[in-house]
Amino acid sequence: MKPKTLYEKLIDSHTIRHLDDEGNVLLYIDRTILNEYTSPQAFTGLRQASRQVWSPKAALLNVDHVNPTRPLRNAEMTDAGGQLQVNYFRENSRDFNIELFDVTDKRQGIEHVVFHEQGMCLPGMVIAAGDSHTTTYGAFGAFGFGIGTSEIEHLLATQTLVYKKLKTMRANLTGTLGHGVTAKDVIIAFIAKISASGATGYAIEFTGEVVDALNMEGRMTICNMAVEAGARGAFMAPDAKVYDYIRSGVKTPKGALWDQAMLAWQQLYSDSDAVFDAEITLDCTSLTPMVTWGISPDQAVMINDKTPNLEATKDEAAYRDIQKALEYMGLESNTKITDIKISHAFIGSCTNARIEDLRSAATILQGHKIANHVKAMVVPGSTQVREQAEREGIAQIFIEAGFEWRQSGCSMCLAMNEDVLEAGDRCASSTNRNFIGRQGAGARTHLMSPEMVAAAAIKGYLTDVREFM
Ligand SMILES: CC(C)[C@H](C(=O)O)[C@@H](O)C(=O)O
Ligand code: SF4
C-alpha cells in the first residue's frame, strides 16, 4: 500500500466521493463549533431555504467574540450590535435544536478552549468551524480548519463540505527548549523563519523532540498559531499525553467505546516512508524568548535583539514593509527591544489562556507588582479555566500583582467587545495577531508568551522573562 501522511489518512477516511478531476472531494465533517459572530448568515440561509440542521448533536454554539468580560456579568451585552447577534444565536439554538453555551453558562469560554474541554475534539476527527484558529485541534491528532459563512451553511445542512486537498509540509522541531522558552516562542520563531505566507496552501505536521516534550497546552499553542504562517491545517500525531488529556471530557467515549477508539487512534501517524511536499527543520535549542515588533506575526525577533536596521535593508519591498510597520508601531529602526515601554499587558486568547498558561504566568508574577504605568488584565480561556485558577490560588496572584481578573471571552484579542485599547496604547499581549488596529484603532500590539507578558507588566518595558526566573 502507498505510504500515507497523517493528513492523507484523515482526509481519505473522510472522503465520501471524488467530485471532479481538479481534486475536489466531498468531505465528511465530524463536528463543528459556532460563534455568534460568524454564524448568523449561515442560519439565515438555512431559514430562507427551509432547511434543517442535519446533525444538531455534531454542533455546539458558544458565545465568545462580542461578550463583555467584566468581572460581574449577566446575560446582557453592552452594545446593541452584540446584543442582536447574541439574541439571534439564542433563537438559532432553540429553533435548530443545537446546544448553546451562553454567556453565563459555566461551560462558556473561547470556542477553541471550550470544544476540547468538553471532550468534543477527538483524534482522527475532521472538524471545520467558522474561525481560522480551528487549526488548534491538530494538537489532538484531529484535522481542524476554518471555513467561511456559506460553507458553514453547507456544513450544517449536510454535514459535508466540498474540499480540495492541501499540500503537506513536515516541520521538524528539533532540540530542547532552553530555560524560559515556550511553545509560543517556538511558533513565533517558526513563523518568522518561513514568513506569514510561508505555509500558504499547506497542512503542516509538526514533529520532533520539541513536540514530544510539550504538554497539551503548548501543542495547542503551536497548532493554533500555525494559521499565522498561512497554513490551513496543522497536526501532531496523537500520543499518551493526548489520551490522558481527553479521557475525562464529558463527551469523550467511555468503556468499550474508548477501547475501540484507542485501536483506531493508534493508527494515526504518518507512515515512515510517507512523502511530504515540503520539509523544514527548526532547531529550537538556541531559541530565546521572542516578541513581535511589527504589524504581522512574522515581524518578530529574540527579546535581546533590536528592531530591524532600515539602513542595512537593501531590498525595496522589505524596506517599505519595515518602514510601514515601524511607523505604525511608533518605533525607530535599530532600537533595543528591551527599551520599548508598554502601557498595557493582556493575557488571554485561544492561543495562550489555558490553565497551564495562567499557571506559568503566575509563577513569574508571584511576589511582584506590575509597574505603576501599566494597566493589565487576564481573560481566562474559559469559565472552567477561570474557576480552576481560582481554586488553585492563581487568580489571587494575578490580582495581588495588579492584574484585573476577568470573565472569559475573546476580549482584547480582537477588541470586538468593550475591551478596546486607545490609539497610541502599547500592549504586551499573549494573543496571536498584531495586525493594524487589532486591539483598537491606532493601538500597538507586541505578541509574546504569557510569561513574557507577565515580565513586561512588572518592568513596564518589554523584558527578558529569564530575569524573573
Ligand atoms: C472573527 C473570526 C472570523 C476571526 C477568525 O476567523 O480568526 C477571529 O476569531 C480572529 O481571530 O480574527
Ligand atoms: S481568542 Fe482571538 S484568535 Fe481566538 S477565536 Fe477569539 S478572536 Fe479569534
TrEMBL record:
[4Fe-4S] cluster binds at residues 350, 410, 413. PROSITE patterns: ACONITASE_1, ACONITASE_2. GO terms for biological process: L-leucine biosynthetic process. Binds 1 [4Fe-4S] cluster per subunit. Pfam families: Aconitase. Its cofactor is [4Fe-4S] cluster. Catalyzes the isomerization between 2-isopropylmalate and 3-isopropylmalate, via the formation of 2-isopropylmaleate. Residues 8-460 form the Aconitase/3-isopropylmalate dehydratase large subunit alpha/beta/alpha domain. Keywords: 4Fe-4S, Amino-acid biosynthesis, Branched-chain amino acid biosynthesis, Iron, Iron-sulfur, Leucine biosynthesis, Lyase, Metal-binding. Its EC number is 4.2.1.33. GO terms for molecular function: 3-isopropylmalate dehydratase activity; 4 iron, 4 sulfur cluster binding; metal ion binding. This is 3-isopropylmalate dehydratase large subunit. Belongs to the aconitase/IPM isomerase family. LeuC type 1 subfamily. CDD domains: IPMI. Pathway: Amino-acid biosynthesis; L-leucine biosynthesis; L-leucine from 3-methyl-2-oxobutanoate: step 2/4. The lineage of its organism: Bacteria, Pseudomonadati, Pseudomonadota, Gammaproteobacteria, Pseudomonadales. HAMAP family: LeuC_type1.
